[in-house]
Amino acid sequence: MTRTEYRWLLPSAMADPELPDDRLRGRRTVRDWAVDITAFLIAAGIGLLALGTIEADETTADVVVFVDSVVGAVACCALWLRRRWPVGLAVALTVLSAVEPVAAGALLVALFSLAVHRPFKPVAIVGALALALVPLQPFLRPDPTTGYLASVIFGALLILLVISWGMAVRSRRQLVVTLRERAHRAEAEAELRAEQAQRLAREAIAREMHDVLAHRLTLLSVHAGALEFRPDAPAAEVGRAAGVIRDSAHEALQDLREIIGVLRGPGDADEGHRPQPTLATLDALVAESRLAGMKVALDNRVTDPGEAPAATGRTVYRIAQECLTNARKHAPGTEVSLTVDGGPGQGLTVVVENPAPTEPFERVPGSGQGLIGLTERATLAGGALEHGPTKDGGFAVRARLPWPAP
Fold first, then answer.
1. CA 298/CA 179 separation, integer angstroms
2. How far apart, in whole angstroms, are the C-alpha atoms of residue 164 and residue 176?
3. What DSSP string describes 309-346?
4. Were 75 and a residue from 58, 106, 198, 394 both cysteine, which residue would form a disulfide, CB within 3.0 to 4.6 Å?
5. How many CB atoms are located within 10 Å of the residue 302 CB?
6. Residues paired with 388 in a beta bridge
7. Which residues form a coiled coil (predicted)?
8. pLDDT at 71
9. Are 327 and 354 in contact, with CB atoms under 8 Å apart?
10. pLDDT tens-digit series, residues 317-368
11. What are the C-alpha distances in Å from 148 to residues 90, 201, 205, 268?
12. Can you tell me the distance from the alpha carbon of 43 to that of 282, in angstroms, rounded to the nearest whole number?
């Protein structure tokens, strides 16, 4: 238990916050009426027992019995004010009980209510006053059936018991309030964490969209530009370019459907979704780029690409895809070399290089987010990625990814 939790359990003056029911509400609830009626009946019952003891004493005058009855009834009725003025009522009944035994029941109820609805300091002050006046009542109105010392001890024990019980009830209510606040706080924090996780998931999806769709859309841009600048091209070449545009658009739609599918519920998943790319599908990526007119030299030195870990193979594929897309946009007409080397226990090394373009071309704007996404992918996979211009004006990307030994 922490120090803060312990302070909630102790009725100390330093840590005793106000409870929701410490102040009088505008209107009593059904529960308030039930509690108030019960308190009135308990006080009246104790007062009737005290009045019966007084009437049993033949030396007591009738006028004294009548006055005691009236005072006891007024004290019990005054308990209906205990929610509005608990401290003042407890002090008044404490003073009254010093000379009036019939008001003892109302005093006990008032002290209990005070301990429940007020912090420790006023309870301690009123309780000390009640204990100080305990010896006065049996001295002024002695009970013929009970000794003086026994009356004092019994009265003090009753006061301490009632106050302790009230303080225990208040501590329990404080604990319940604290646990309820913590539950609300935990729910709010859980909602914030869920929103943050959703935001991070959306950012990851956005990066995935960039990596996947940029490759397809670049193919569309290249072939559409070729058709635009060469309207007199042979029909076979135009047909081939149109076919690549159609296939690239279809693949882009498939990739988009695959990425958006992660936002669907478990029962809404598309049964026809395609498998994620791996190191074994790297040849298909290179073939697709060559079909689009790129010059790509692939040197895959991995003996068995199908044995590579799925996450590592997918990362290699995305790195190659993004690098080919960037080369197609920023260095068209150059030959891109793609080298993959490594094995179990050695890790995987991916190197993509392209020389500086030698012919003028229309530059395609780029955001630079692709290389940032590749760096994050490599880091999340447990590796590292470096990129930058080469000495001859080209560009190179080097990545090192783990491949644990079997």
1. 63
2. 18
3. -HHHHHHHHHHHHHHHHHHHHHSTTSEEEEEEEEETTT
4. 106
5. 20
6. 396
7. 180-207
8. 80
9. yes
10. 989 998 998 888 888 888 999 999 998 988 999 999 999 887 766 665 555 6
11. 24, 79, 85, 83
12. 89
Burial of 136 (0-12, 13-18, 19+ CB in 10 A): middle
Q: How many CA atoms lie within 13 A of 256 on its CB side?
A: 10
What six digits make up the tokens of 89?
């009522």
CA angle 237-239-245, nearest 5°?
A: 105
Fold of 279-406: Heat Shock Protein 90 (3.30.565)
Rounded-to-integer distance, Cα 153 and Cα 206, Å: 78
How far is the C-alpha of 138 from the C-alpha of 343, rounded, in Å?
A: 97
Domain ranges in the chain with CATH number 3.30.565.10: 279-406
User: For residue 314, how far is the Cα from the chain centroid?
Assistant: 33
Ramachandran region of residue 244, left (φ > 0), alpha (ψ -120 to 50) or beta? alpha
Q: How many helices (H) and strands (E) does the chain have?
A: 12, 5
- Measured distance CA(278)–CA(310) in Å, rounded: 6
Q: State the first-to-last Cα distance of the chain, in angstroms, to the nearest integer.
A: 47
Length of the chain: 406
**Cα 289 → chain centroid:** 46
Tokens of 365: 């704007």
Identity of the residue numbered 24: L
Q: pLDDT below 50 — which residues of the chain?
A: 1-15, 265-273
CA distance 308 to 346: 12
